[in-house]
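Quarterly update from the structural biology core.
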Amino acid sequence: MDFATILDPDLVFVPRKYPLASQVDEIKRPANYAIMGMGQKTAPAILTDGLNEVGLACATLYFPDYAHYSDQIDATKTNLAPLEVVAWLLSNFATLDEVKAAVMQLNLISDPAEIFTPLHWIVTDKTGHVIVVEPMKNGIVIHDNPLGVMANSPDLNWHLTNIRNYIGVNPNKLGPIKLNGVTFSPFGNGARTFGLPGDYTPPSRFLRAVFGKEAINVLENEDEGIKAAFHILSSVEIPKGSVFTDEGVDYTQYTAAMVCNTGTYYFKTYDNNQIIKACIFDKDLDSEQPKAWKIPQIQQYGTLNE
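Predicted structure, tokenized:
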């Protein structure tokens, strides 16, 4: 999660049947499923990403210049603020088919606090299929996402079209060539990745994530998958000082990976690179109140002693 404003998130757990109230219409909607993700204890209806007990997972991404919201409540639809979408999806639905049907009855209202938060969402379930939900000028659009990768603006179709500029990039070795009898060898390995952009714009980060995901070796288990996910995500992390905005330094405040089949949430923060994990099934799914854990922000080091 990259942002210029300090998020100071908690790991939040919301039990089954706990009523999540929208700040738009103050309607309380009891959770069908227990959910867990990154957010703040003071506002359990707001998560930036997370998963639920039946294997649905969702993450928020920034969508400036593209996101459009309504300014009127529609009594025939579900009215939510954009920041409430993750918790609403996770607490109510189990599959992508359910999500697709429900999202078409969703009315997103500009934040009542007058903080415009342009967002879109990537959603997956235990099948491994992925969709992207984007609030466009002509209404909410749902895309099937065959690559399973998403970034900030532009919209998904733009990112997919842009891949056509990079179809020659691949991880295979490039051999030497001869020109007029002179042999020219590439400088080291990785010559076929030449042209893969290394900047911090969303289009470039999208491409690097797609390349890493498609090139990774076959994964045998969850441990291998998590290690691979964090290595791929490290290629798109923004270190402090590399990107400045009007609000301040934009950087990767935390990195997370979720396993739908086991209900496990893995994460690390900018200030603590130790990967921490939490399993939703270790929590009391039928407890009465949400619970939050402060995120360790001091770097943990392993020590080798004689």
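The chain has one domain: 2-154+218-294.
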